[in-house]
Amino acid sequence: MFTKWYEKNGKDGEVVISTRVRFARNLEDYPFPIRASANIKKEIAEKVKDAVLNNNSVIATRFSCINMDNIDTGKKVSLVERHLVSPEFISGNEERTLLLLDDESVSIMINEEDHIRLQVMTEGFDLDKAYELASRIDTLLDERLKFAFSDRLGYLTQCPTNLGTGMRASVMLHLPALRATKAMRKIAENLTKLGLTIRGAYGEGTDPVAGMYQLSNQISLGISEKTAIDNLKNITKQLIAQELKARNAICSQTVIQDRVYRSEGTLRYARLISCDEALKCLSDIRMGITSGLVKNISLDTINRLIVEIQPATLMQSIGKNLEPSERDEERANLIREAVL
Amino acid sequence: MLCQSCKKNQATTHIKNIVNGELTEKHLCSECAAKQGYSNVFENMFDIGSFMSGFMGEPSFALATEKHCPNCGITFSQITKSGRVGCSKCYDIFYDRLLPSIKRIHGNTFHTGKRLRKPQLESGENSKSEVKTSSKSELELLSDELQKAIKSQEFEKAAQLRDKINALKAEQGGNQ
Ligand SMILES: [Zn+2]
Ligand SMILES: [Zn+2]
To answer: Which residue of chain B comes nearest to A33, CA vs CA?
Structure first.
């Protein structure tokens, strides 16, 4: 088994949990999914599968192919919880097929909003690595598939928001201290002006309890991939510095230390824990580890738990469907063993 | 279906999400969707087809004059309604009408990123657009005028133009 990107801590891992680069691509000769019949979508899926699985690249043999019609809801939801596909992708439209690399770092969604959504994920802060891999696969596939491209508008996509490079680059940030100091609203406002968006990464709303955010570029036309990535990199670096400074300041306060140690107690001893409470505690511990308050737990473990405690993923690993209360018990067991 | 956020307006935007292990869908009106950062990119676009049908009380008008993409069959009002473009050719066919939205979204209208293939010859591109302007039919010219009249709220003139267009359409239909 390969270690998955969400099971390890990467560059600037105190603040950046993971990096993602995603390209939207369409085949020149076919209508976009909204105007394509089931038969056409099937044909597209076959073409893309053939291009990915039957080429001479070293990674071709490492992909597996999953037809969304052939797996149960639990498996589908778990794919979303592991950030391998979008919620849209599992929402019951026909002929959706996923090509997934064995270490889950590359996923190719077929017949989502566009014919192809190619996504590369890495642990930590590594936009260059994610972009280079995504771009290499993109170039390889274009030779076989000929992507819809216009001199003026760049890569042509079903929704005009993705025109141009078709690229969304994003980083998942853990910003508990900036959230605690109520700085996020102002930061979000300023980011919008710079062509970036920030959203809560788990659950709903703009004020996520676990302090995890997704920061991404918003504009893809008239800006090169390199410029968009450099912008994102610079802003991320600034946010990392601000977050670490804020952590330093708040982690000397007794009220924050109390919260971190209570969360540690909960994770070490609880017998029942909901997903929300677990995420909140893991967030506190994560901050506690990087500030030297919590010892003997690694960031690798925390990152892995953030994914493994999600309801559908938890049930996948147990191997059966569970009632919420049963889930809470299994979740508490999983965490206790991991942080022992 | 009512908007889940304000519980007043009709829900037009549907957002999928995973909450507690289940796939859920949030239904929002366009205002609430915009507030939460989701919106149809064509929402605020001036759409002549739906405007005219509301203004004249003649829904058939929009259908009769609307151009379909010859490749995928979609019309411009279908594009603005769904927020989705039908195929790559649509971007040529409806280029002028899509451009304002594209500009509003990106602040730009020209790609500067990755290019795998050499750009087509400039002359080819130019001659194509020249042909397009010179071959504008009377119908298209009238439609342009109509759009201008509506924009400047000259509704009487708009009504006259509409009648002219319909007459011309009937004439062309009879000739075929
Ligand atoms: Zn509303
Ligand atoms: Zn079309």
So the answer is: B86
